[in-house]
Amino acid sequence: MDNTIRLQYLEAMGIDVWVPKTSPPSHKNQLVEAVVDDTELETKDSVINNWNNLKIEVANCTKCALHTTASKTVFGSGDNKAEWMLVGEAQGQQEDKQGLSFVSNVGALLTEMLRAIDLTSKDVFITNITKCTPPNNRLPDVNEIDSCNNYLHRQQQLIKPKIIVALGLFAAQSLLKTNKPLDSLRGKVHSFNDTPVIVIYDPAYLLRFPFKKQEVWLNLMHAIQIVKNNKG
Ligand code: SF4
Q1: Which residues line ligand 1 (CB under 6 A)?
Q2: Cβ contact 95:103 at 8 Å
Q3: What is the structure's pLDDT at 209?
Q4: Whose Cα sits closest to atom 6 in ligand 1?
Q5: Which residue from 23, 90, 108, 193 has the highest number of Cβ atoms inside 10 Å of its Cβ?
Q6: Which domains, ranges and CATH numbers included, belong to the chain?
Q7: Pocket test for ligand 1, best of 56, 61, 145 (most atoms within 8 A of CB)
């Protein structure tokens, strides 16, 4: 691999890459060379490329009719190496305009909920069942969900989260391909591509029924335990 690219990777990984201009590379730098091999860096390179390619693919997607009414696609927000992946039903009009997930007062509540369990937006990746906003605040239909499903799978495969949190009934049913009611889905551990899934109330619902926050808190405590167990 080209040395300039290697140094950029090391810098991005927080490894000291100071190199004296007039003397040979230090012992410290030789050690770093030994620890980070080309195969590992090339794997990271390919993950980054796949992620960027997926973003471009979604941005240009015309697989369902939603692309004709949405202002722009909403790929998702956050870290593509996050341990937590949050999946909502579909974005609202503000998200549609800005092309970002959860930027309204629902997003503010979600941020508050994450802060309560010591997570920031950098610790999670937040996305939706469909990447385009359905018109008139309606939910996506079955065809639209099926058309977009492949993007969600590929996001999960690239991120490799330790847990997925489904936000509300619609997101949970679409993700888990079930018609079960919310109360029978909450409090249990499900699976999506072998990643554990827990289901919580949609933050939009919590804005209307704040007394339900206590139940979400318990579900999130459960999720924290799953992540800890997943780390071995
Ligand atoms: S909702 Fe998904 S499948 Fe449909 S056009 Fe948008 S990105 Fe493509």
Answers
A1: 58, 61-64, 66-67, 73, 130-132, 144, 147-148
A2: yes
A3: 92
A4: 132
A5: 90
A6: 3-36 (no CATH), 69-230 (3.40.470.10)
A7: 61
Instruction: Read off the pLDDT of each residue in 126-134 and give the average, rounded to a whole number.
Output: 93
> How much distance in Å is there from the Cα of 66 to the middle of ligand 1?
6
Mean of the per-residue pLDDT values of the chain: 82
Q: How far is CA 207 from the centre of its chain?
A: 22
pLDDT for position 11:
45
Which pTM value belongs to this model? 0.79
pLDDT top residue among 12 and 225: 225
First to last CA, the chain: 33
191 burial (CB, 10 Å; 0-12 / 13-18 / 19+) is: exposed
Q: In a mutational test of the pocket of ligand 1, which residue from 64, 138, 145 has the highest number of ligand atoms less than 8 Å from its CB?
A: 64
pLDDT at position 42 is 65
DSSP string, 77-100: EE-TT-SEEEEES---HHHHHHT-
As a whole number of angstroms, the distance between CA 133 and CA 143 comes to 14
Sheet holding 77-78, edge to edge: 77-78, 124-128, 84-88, 163-167, 195-200, 190-192
